[in-house]
Amino acid sequence: MGLSERTRGGDDLARHIEGELAEFLDGAENRIVQDDAKMDEAIRKITRQVTMEEIGKKPEVSVIISRLMAD
């Protein structure tokens, strides 16, 4: 069955979730961004919350954090 691709307002669900996550990342404190466990928890919570509000389903969320390191 899966998730709907559209929000209740007709917007693209994936883009809406991405927008909410981008907003979180723009305002997140360094201590949260530098801690993988805190980032995992925050991303999971925001994704579930947005999805629940928009389509009434609470999805299983898997978070993969990949960090690029400078030489």
Would you mind describing this structure in some detail?
With 71 residues, this protein is mainly alpha-helical. The chain has one domain. It contains 3 helices and no strands. It has helices spanning 13-27, 30-33, 36-55. Helix 1 runs antiparallel to helix 3 (36-55). It starts with 12 loop residues before the first helix and ends in a 16-residue tail after the last helix. The model has no long low-confidence stretch (mean pLDDT 90).
Keywords:
mainly alpha, 71 residues, 55% helix, elongated
Mean pLDDT: 90
Into how many domains do the coordinates divide?
A: 1
Number of strands: 0
pLDDT < 50 runs, ≥5 residues: none
Main β-sheet: number of strands, strand sense, barrel status?
none
Measured distance between first and last alpha carbons: 45 Å
Specify Rg, calculated over alpha carbons. 14 Å
Strand content: under 5%
Proportion in helices:
40-55%
Tally of alpha and pi helices = 3
Short note summarizing the structure:
The chain has 71 residues and is an all-alpha fold. The protein has helices spanning 13-27, 30-33, 36-55.
Topology:
Blueprint: H1 13-27, H2 30-33, H3 36-55
